Structure formats: structure tokens, C-alpha cells
Amino acid sequence: MLSRIADSLFWIGRYVERADQTARILEVNLEAIMEDTGSERGPRCAEVMRIFGAAHEEDQDLSVQAVLDELAIDRGNPSSIAGALKVARENARGAREVLPTEVWESLNTTTLELPRSLRPARMHRFFQTTKDRCAVVTGLVDASLPRDEAWLFLRLGQQLERIDMFSRILQSHDPTDTTGATTIMLLRSCSADEAYIRSFRGQVRVDDAVAFLLLDRIFPRSIAHCLLQADEALEVLGKLHGQTFDRFGTEDAARRIVGRIEASLRFRPLADVMEDFEREMEQVQIAASAASRAIDAQYFDPDLPPGA
Amino acid sequence: MSSTPLFSSYQGSTGTDEMFDADGGARDSCAFLADALTTLGEEEFRVRAESLARAYLDQGITFDYAGEERPFPIDPIPRVIDAEEWSMVSSGVAQRVRALEHLLDDVYTDRRVVADGVLPAELVESSTYVVEAMRGYRPPNGVRVHISGIDLVRDGSGGFRVLEDNARTPSGVSYVLSNRRAMARTFPELFSQQPVRRVDEYPGRLLQTLRAAAPEDTEGEPTVVVLTPGRFNSAYFEHSLLARTMGVELVEGPDLVVSHDRVYMRTTAGLRRVDVIYKRTDDDFLDPEVFRPDSMLGVPGIVRAILAGNVVVANAIGNGVADDKLTYTYMPDLIRYYLAEDPILPNVDTWRLEDPSSREEVLDRLDELVVKPVDGSGGKGIVIGPSASATELDELRVRLQKDPRGWIAQPVVQLSTIPTLVEEGPEPRHVDLRPFALNSGDDVWVLPGGLTRVALPKGEMVVNSSRGGGSKDTFVLSSRGRPTQGGGAVTQGQSQSTDSSRSEQGSEDLEPVEGEQEPSFTARERERSEPATATAAIPILDEDELQELEEEQGTPDEPGTSEEPDSPEGPQCADGQDTGTEQEARRHAE
């Protein structure tokens, strides 16, 4: 597969996942702010911005509208829903010969229909449409692509983006706040509330919630699950490119990074991870972006032939 | 049904309308179409037309216009060409392509045509399109015009004439494919009336043509790529569609790298050898070592690789001399010279401004003629006398006198019209036709139909997408009383060599064609169409084995309980092994 196409697919995976997760996080948090008439909206809006690394000094008077303008519909900002979808669509346009036509058409239609402005009263509808469209794209990808390189790069992008997003949400959460309501909010931001409630039979405790989001191997939105999926995808990619059985560990730079995060989170006592939680989550983000760069170096930027 | 029939107020009165005659009656070949559309009723027709337009937007069927992605308008009323006329058109197009091949081969090698006094030496020497770097080069299978688009117009007399030849990078075939798909979805009833020749075999034929062009020492299946300038090119949609439907990589310049005169592409598995490049960039931007040193799109060293015989680029570099409109004026003579045949499709009458007496006549009648630059494409630089202002004509007169080599002149052709849906309803609009031909070296295949372009502004005679043009699906009818022939290809004998004995042979192959031809298959295709031999399949149920088991055990209902899973020695077992080895061999070949 062409390196340029592989690169595009990886980023389609990332941007579609980003649009979907951003919609989910904004939906839960902004709706809570709108419903809650008691407290100041400005600082809470700033907190939402902080999750996406978009907070500024002067953001204490932010309105819900301002958050929507920046993180929902700003097409020029690849961290916004509209911006992420637009970049995903641009990448898809350059990779049409490997993407199923339906995937392209779905991304194209979604982008064409993006609103130019969005009022808080209409935001629910917009978030819902975004989630639906992203589900259509990921569903089509899963149902129609062979598990070849194209699928693996899309998958890798999706999983690394999810790891990044969830570590951001977790980072912004104060683990010493043990009130049920904030814990539920955390779970809902990750679309994990229903799965959690079923797994823990209704007991809402912050430690359990963090453990669930970080470590549950069978919950597809937990960081551990995403790491395992990313590792698997990297392993298959390596085999497709002639790497042999990794009897003595692995030479693959991206796999080493991913494997290390996974080992560190899963094989340390949870209390140890929680002790300096904010910093640990920041390190997850740094490591995930290092993995992204390692993939770039190995697959998207091949070396010249000898003598060239 | 609507109260006013769809075509009741249609006036194609000029007598050059392809669908209706001067009395307003539908022509024979179009009667089924007029009936079917009228039966729909105007309201339903408009609803369908809108969904057709919407579908194009959703599918991203666009062209780039002034930096903006725009949907390419498709008109819901198709053009109809009957079987008899099509067979004449396709023979004429194939003849033209064969003559162009001879011409290009000659220009880049012996220039016999100049020595024999058929083409003036000045023409070849003054053409800006002759690429000196390619002098003496002959491609492995001799083909230089793998893909061509010969633009035709129907004039006042009703017959097709050639307007120009495109042997460089003719575009538009993707719209032929997507127009058909969209029409079949939106207006299924149109296809139930009359067998319409299929167009969807084009990508397969194209791939076959490109593979046939591969360097002789290619190991295994040749690796073909499509080279695009990138997604901001106006025809990017087409590049992507062709790559996708052929199942090959769509590469941009920076994806390719030349090392030791070989071309490689950068892939996730490192660098991979490329054998054939379907080039959709202009020659000028292909190789900064030979052409423009400032080009960022090109691949340095690619011309060296071509000359070393390590890669083939289609269409060949330097084909522009065939598109030169001055060359065009000699095409009827060239067809007679190279093929010893009379041209099947005539040219539009043309004056060469180089010739002093013609120049005088043209300058006198400038206000009634169409003047075109010889190197223009896409309608660029054309001046239409009757609609130009006096100052424009004066300016033109000066330019013509200064550079007579640079221009040709033609009478205003009364282009045919076809009903086209506009705001007010169906109205006559001018059309042209670009049939596409593929030359694999064994034969020239012409895609049934081609791209019908419509000039959407009222009265506009220049038909081009950059001038607000749209397109129509082009129905080529199969001849009546015969089943539709999906793979129906009009093929003619083709000779690549300029060697005169062979070219004469080639000319004998071309016989006047009457009515629809039976598809003529090459030997390879015939082989492929035979049913696969039984050894290629492993049946899920091995009935012989099953029967043996039943006889042994007497439990016919439970073959799965067999104690002996190993199949007995026999032909089935051998079959399985054969298949295995075959697959293994194929894998090695890849």
C-alpha cells in the first residue's frame, strides 16, 4: 500500500473517532451545564474547553455558545467536530481507491450537511447526527473492508485517538471527588455509564469507575482494551511486512511504546496509578503520540533504496 | 400524469435536432425515449431529475472549477445513437487512432511522411509538441496512443465530423461510467424498452491495455499505477475512479522515486517496482530533468527510465504533435498515406492560415468564421466570429498576421441539438461527442457511446465544462432483434509498425461495417470465456467419498461420524493437491 494512502487512512481513523468522542463529551457536559441553573456557567465551560486543551486565560466568562462555536462547528479547527469531519473527508477524497464507496459517500454527505451555525437549543440534534454518522462510517469499515493494511491503519488511528481522548477526560477528572454525580458524569462522558452500572450492579464509586475506564479488558472503550487492540493491529501489520515471530520480544518501536503503557497501567496497583493521576494521564498522552510518530517513521516514510 | 405533455412546447425547429424532426415528431431511434419520458409526466420527471443532481453531489462526482469543487451537471434526457450509425462512428474512430499511431511513430523515428512530401517539414519542426528527448524511442508494444478521445460534432447535414484529436490525456470517461450508473438507477424504465450497449467494461479494458504495454522483461503481472497531479486537479475525480475500478494505486509525483533508471513507489512495505504508469499529468510537469525544472509535481529521472526501457508511460510523452490543430488539417491525407484507406469520418472544413491565399480569405471573412489556436484545449483561445465584437476581431487580425502557424479557421458548424432540461422545461441545446478508444496493440476498442457534452447556456456553441457545460448519458442501441451484447466490442485489425507491408495488411483488415457486428473475440478472450475445468474446484460434498462411507457403515444420515477422516486415494485427492499447487504458484508469481 502507498505510504501516503496508509497515512491518510490512519488519520481518517483518528478524525472520525475524534468527531464522535467530541460529540459525546460535549453532549454530556454542555447539557449538564444548560440544565444546572444554580452554578456559574463560565468556569464550567472553561473546564470543558480544558479537556480538549483549548482553554485560554480569559475563558472564565465563556458561554455554551462560545464552546459550540469553537469545538462543534469551527471547520478550520481540526479539534472541533466539524473540523475533524472535514479533514477526515479530505483524507478520504485522497484515498478513494482503497475506501469502500459507501464510506466515502457517507463522509462526503456528512460534511456537506454540516451546519454553519449552531444554537444550544439545537445542539442535541447535531450531536446525535454526528454520532450516527460516525457509527455508519465505522460500521461500514468493519463490515466491508478485508482485515488488510487498510483496515489495520484505520483501526490503529481509531484506537490511538480513543486512548488520547480518554486519558484527557480522565486527566481532567479529580479522583478525590467521590460524589456519585460527578462520577456518573465521568462515565457518561466516556459513554461508559450503562456498561459500568451493569458490571458493578449499580454501585457507583470513583475508584471502580476509574478502574473500569482504565483497565477493563473487555469494555471496548477502556484504555487497556484500546492498547491491546492497538498492539494486536501492530503485530499483524508487522507480520504482513515480514516481521517474524516475536519470540524474544519485539523490535517494533510503536509496539514497544504501546506495550509499555499497557504493562505500566495493568501491572501496577491501581492506588499507585491514582496517586499522581493527572501526571500519569498526561504521560499516557505523550506516549500515545510517540507511538503515532513511530508508526509514521516505519510505514509512512520509507527509506530510499541503496544508491538513490 | 401531468396535464401538459413533457415535449409539447419543445421547438427544435432548426432541423438539426437529434431527437425530433422538423415537424416535431420523434425520430425513429428516439421514439421509445420520448414515449417513456412523456409517460412519466413532467412532475415526476422533474423530481427524478432533482434526485439525479443530488446523487452526484453526495457521491462527490465533481470537477474543480476555479479552485472550487463543483458537481458536473448531468442532464436527465439521454442521447440516442442507433446501431448502424455507431458502427460507422466506431470504425471511423479506430481508423483515426491507427493513423495517429503511424504518424507518431514516424515523427519520432524516420519521418518518412516528411520525405514523401505528405506533411511539410516545417510543421514537424515548428510544432512545440515534438519532444526531442523522445526521438528514436519506440515503446515495447509499439503503442503510443493507448487512450484517446476523438471529438466529434454532428453538422447541418446530420453526419458526424471530427472536430479534434486528443492523444495526450483525454478526460471525461469517468462521467460516461457514472452517468450510466446514475441514469440506470433513476430512470430504470428507459432501459427496459431498448437494449442499450453497456459501458462498464471500460476499466477492465483499460487495465488490459496498460498491462499489454508493459516492458518486455517484466516479471509476473505488471504493476500499473495511475499518476495524478493531486486532488486539486480538475479531473481528480476521474483519476481516482479509474484507479479504484482497475484496482491499482493512484500515485502522486512524490510517491514515486527513480533509482538506477527504475521507477519505484513508496509503500508501507518499502519501495516497490512500477512497470506501467498511466500518466494524467501534462508532459511539461512529468520530469523536471527534461521539462520544467521548477515542477514540484514531477518525478526526476522518469524519462531516463522510459528510455532505458524499464517503465512505460501511457500515453507516450510527445503525443502533443498529434493534437496540434495544424496536424489535424492533414489527417485525411495521413489516413490515405498510412492506411491506404479513405477516411470514414471527415474533418470539419479547415483553413490553414500559413497558406497565403487561405489566409487572405480568412481575414476577409473573419466575422463569419471560428478561429482556433493550434495548441488550445478545453475551448481556450477560441474566437467565434459572428459573436465577437469589432475590436476583438481587429485584435485577432493582428495576431493572425503575426503568427499564422499558430491558428486555424473553420466555418461556424451548425451543431446538432438535443432536448435538455432547463428551468422552463426541455429546450434545444448544442452537443458534441467524445468517443473513447483504447489501443492494446492487438486491436483498437471503442467504448460504445462516449461522453456527450452539452453547452448549457442558450445558443452557446463551445461545449466545455469550463464554459458552463454539462453532460448526457449516451445510449448506443444494439441492433433490433438481437440480444444485448454486454461485451460487444467493435474491433479492427491493427498494425503498429510503420513497416509498409504491415500497414497495408492493416488496411485490408478494415472492411466497411454494416449494421451491428458480432463481438469479435481475440483468442485469449475466447479461452477465458470457456467454462473453468472441474479441477479448479473443491466441492463441499464429495459424493463419491460419501457414498463409499455409507456403503461401509450403513449410516447414510451421519457422514460426520466417520472414524476415518482421511479421504481414500483417488482423483478427488489429487484434485485438491493440484489446486493447492496452483494457488501456491500464483502466490509466487505475485
UniProtKB/TrEMBL annotation, chain A:
Residues 1-300 form the DUF403 domain. It comes from Brachybacterium endophyticum. This is DUF403 domain-containing protein. Pfam families: Alpha-E (PF04168). It comes from the Bacteria.
UniProtKB/TrEMBL annotation, chain B:
Residues 78-455 form the Circularly permuted ATP-grasp type domain. It holds the Pfam family CP_ATPgrasp_2. Residues 463-590 are annotated as: Disordered. Residues 506-517, 541-567 have a biased composition (Acidic residues). Gene3D superfamilies: 3.30.1490.270, 3.40.50.11290. InterPro entries: ATP-dep_Glu-Cys_Ligase-2, CP_ATPgrasp_2. Residues 491-504 have a biased composition (Polar residues). This is Circularly permuted ATP-grasp type 2 domain-containing protein. It comes from Brachybacterium endophyticum.
